[in-house]
Amino acid sequence: MKKTFKCMLAFCGALAVLAPVAPAQAEAPMVKTQVPGYYRTMLGQFEITALYDGAIELDSQLLKNVKEQELERLLSRMFVEGPKMQTAVNAYLINTGSNLVLVDAGAAKLFGSGLGHIVGNMRAAGYDPAQVDTVIVTHLHGDHVGGLGDSAGQMVFPNATIHVAQTDNDFWLSPQMAAQAPAEIQPFFKMAVDAAAPYQARGQWKTFAEGSEVVPGIRAVKAYGHTPGHTAYAVESNGEKLLIWGDVVHSHAVQFARPEVAFEFDVDQAQAVATRKSLMYSLAATKTLVAGMHLPFPGIGHVRADGKGIYSWIPAEFAPLPPASQ
After folding, report:
1. What residues contact residue 302 under an 8 Å CB cut-off, 6+ apart?
2. Exposure b/e, 293-325, CB count within 10 A at least 16 = b
3. For residue 23, what pLDDT is reported?
4. Which has the closest alpha carbon to 59: 290, 284, 264, 288?
5. The pLDDT value given to residue 322
6. 240 FRET partner, CA 20 to 30 A, in 3, 59, 73, 250?
7. What gap in Å lies between CA 168 and CA 285, rounded to an integer?
8. Under a CB-based contact definition with an 8 Å cutoff, are residues 136 and 177 in contact?
9. Is 239 helix (H, G, I), strand (E, B) or coil?
10. pLDDT tens per residue, range 31-57
11. pLDDT tens column, 109-159
12. How far apart are CA 53 and CA 273, in angstroms?
């Protein structure tokens, strides 16, 4: 009898091993949302907050001066499938201790629902648009100034003075230039005019000359080509330097390795190429920190020289900030 019971128990154990196991249930549902789009670092005594406006897909055919086979190779080596390239749109908030300065304002919803997140991410980062006292603009394309106004045409930054290079101002806000432009380019002029209008009406739209110090510690640097008055900004505090270069690069997968590759919407493609080559050479040589509006978020890092006229983008690593007492 004991032997019979032992056999039965062994048989039942074998069945238990062979029986299908019910799938484990997750203890919580997936969240399926991304973290807020901001990244913070210090530059001397200045606090720099990168703000993510969103991403757009640019067609690789917008890149010029490169053969199709070479373009595909450059994209593939950076794991970009093409022909669509995910391209970030970034802005930078600089707290100097005396001024709260926003560099570019994103696109709002001018180019679809994938953009327009500057204000939300600014609030997530601990700031309110009403606190911004200065907005400086790299150029007047809609993905850089569309976010100055809301859907009703009201100022998003009511207490800010907007600063733009005189040359870009005179080009994009000119009715004569708009009338002469090809039909497909004319909407870009309207975007600039609409962004400027509410600030102009209240005397909060200012222009500056090349090389001006817009606020203490932030100086305009000529970077012409992408637009007639395209401007970079040299930021310096306690001997530490950052160049916010705007739209010097639209495709990090291609234009670092091949700076001669132009972009369809460069107003002066030859000048844009010359500007990119010059800046990359000097920034790699001096190891100056760089931030770019269309570099992968947060768009902060360094340019490394990999040979004559060939460069790589080295993104900054995530790091904690020093304690507040330091």
Report:
1. 283, 284, 287, 288, 289, 290, 313, 314, 316
2. bbbbbbbbbbbeeeeeeebebeebeeeeeeeee
3. 60
4. 264
5. 83
6. 250
7. 29
8. no
9. coil
10. 998 999 999 999 999 999 999 999 999
11. 999 889 999 999 999 999 999 999 999 999 999 999 999 999 898 999 999
12. 26
Question: Per residue, what are the HEC states of 158-195?
Answer: CCCEEEEEHHHHHHHCCHHHHHHCCCCCHHHHHHHHHH
pLDDT (mean) for 195-216: 96
Q: Rounded to a whole number, what is the largest CA-CA distance in the chain?
A: 107
Residue 60 to residue 310: CA distance in whole angstroms: 20
- In tens, the pLDDT along 220-249 reads 999 999 999 999 999 999 999 999 999 999
Q: Can you say whether the dihedral through the CA atoms of 280, 282, 287, 289 is positive or negative?
A: negative
Tokens matching residue 229? 């008055």
Distance of CA 103 to the CA centre of its chain: 10
Task: State the chain's mean pLDDT as an integer.
Answer: 92
Q: How confident is the model at residue 6 (pLDDT cuts 50, 70, 90)?
A: low
Alpha-carbon gap, residue 28 to 40, rounded angstroms:
30
- Residue 26 — very low, low, confident or very high, per pLDDT cuts 50/70/90? low
79-88 tens-digit pLDDT: 998 789 999 9
Contact assessment for residue 215 and residue 132, using Cβ atoms and an 8 Å cutoff? no
DSSP state of 255: H
Name the residue with tokens 């399926």.
32
Residues, the chain: 326
Residue the block writes with tokens 């629902």: 113
Distances (CA, A) of 26 to 29, 30, 40, 235, 304: 7, 9, 34, 48, 45
Residue 321 DSSP symbol: P
This prediction has a pTM of 0.90
